[in-house]
Amino acid sequence: MSKPAEAARRSRLKSWLIKAILPVVLLVLWHLACTQWKIHPLILPHPFSVLRELWSSVVSGELWLHLAVSLWRCLVGFAAGSLAGIVMGVLLGWYSLLDEFFDLVVNFLRAIPKTALAPLFIVWFGFGDLPKILLIGLASFFYTLIPTIEGVKNIDNLLIKSARSLNANDRQLLLTVVLPSALPSMYAGLRLAAATSLVVLVFVEIIAGDSGLGFLLEQGRTSLNMPVMYMTLFVLGVVGLLLDWLVRVSETKLMPWRKGKTISF
Amino acid sequence: MDVFIKGLCKSFSQNGQGERRILDGLDLKVSSGEFLSVLGPSGCGKTTLIEIIAGLQAPDQGEITIGGLSLDKSPANRAIVFQQYALFPWLTVRDNIEYGLRIRGLGKQKRHEISRRFIALVRLEGFEGHYPHELSGGMQQRVALARSLATKPDLLLLDEPFAALDFQTREECQAELLRIWRDTGVTIIFVTHDVGEAIFLGDRLVVMTSQPTRVRQEFAVEMPRPRHLGLKLAPMFRDLEFRARALLAEGRRS
Predict the structure, then answer these.
(1) To bridge B118 with a disulfide, which of A28, A132, A192, B146 should be the other Cys (CB 3.0-4.6 Å)?
(2) Residues B176 and B115 in one domain
(3) Among the ranges given (A171-175, A235-239, B39-43), the one the predictor scored with the smallest mean pLDDT
(4) How would you classify the pairing of strands B61-66 and B3-13?
(5) Predicted TM-score (pTM) of this structure
(6) Are A143 and A85 in contact (CB under 8 A)?
């Protein structure tokens, strides 16, 4: 192995070691809290019992079932909602008359916390997948809509003039200048929408679930099965990380010119 | 193709305070293949003039003909280079240069063939795959120049293209532009507020007055080509520079 490659490998190893310190310390503290300081297992179960719970629900397939249901709702709602948000955002950003037409209604609906609509949606659509997907979709819609509108409106006028002077017509202007220009803003919205999707999902599953990770949490509470609750929280953390990672990786693939320069709110 | 501009007027409304006249009956003539320098104080409506010729703004009054045909009927191809480069940040150097060709529906092979030629013309071989933010200001402006030239314009409009560059890069770019002009034979209208630049580059120098903008005076720059940067020290050059500066100062005072 050449010298620079060796050095790079070492610095990567070092960075991973540094990152691993805190989780290990926390796990040890957790262990001590259960064994030495005698915190009641109903408040804080021992890490091993959480691990056992994780193992058994993985083996029995129960976890996969709930995870799959949750992911399905989340992804369908997120994909449909963000797609609609981006399409509408481009339209409203491009046609200012349309923007003015929708302005009051959009801003009013946006101002309502999406979780507040859950009771209404349950009355309308019952306890199945539909109200959950719709709420996630609605949240994703608004989180992508607003940044997309801003992104389209704030396009550098000079780039438009450039494209026009090179003979681009309206359609070409939209496809070759407006969309790529607004892409970073759209992605900022997508990241926000992905994070919020998970929040809305778990919330609705807790109050009206027959399956899914939120349901599992609520089940853990009603049966006082703390290891299940902790295990579910851990899985939710992993899912959240994965979602964010997915959005970020696709971002660098789609916008190589930005080299990971992300706008986050 | 010859360009005739006659009686060009343009006003902008100022928030409720009536109109501000930017161009007031401007006449200008550019011959085919000529390098015309337009010199005026900052904010005198030079950009408006360029954008009207480019078709990005409509004049209130006046007439522009290119090759004997009015602007909207003329098939003449006009390209513009802006002070702030205005490259598409999401496109590589090659894709930026090919942008106008793609808009015109040229095939990939033909586009590559043309872009290769213009990348060589502005001496950016080896940077084809770079994104604009990876290049220096001077290199970015050369990409912008190549992007405009790739569409084979009859008329190249340059709006203070080197104003954002440092002194040394600016001088290099001026020499480069002269070489490119000689190689392509394109007609150029070059707008600047830099007196030395205007004289060094142009066949003819038009000095404008401040708002409303009219032509104040015209000079023929009778200095041999090819011109080298050392020319800026010649007595003839200094003399012309002195007169142009005096006119500019006068225009500012009035």
Answers:
(1) B146
(2) no
(3) B39-43
(4) antiparallel
(5) 0.81
(6) yes
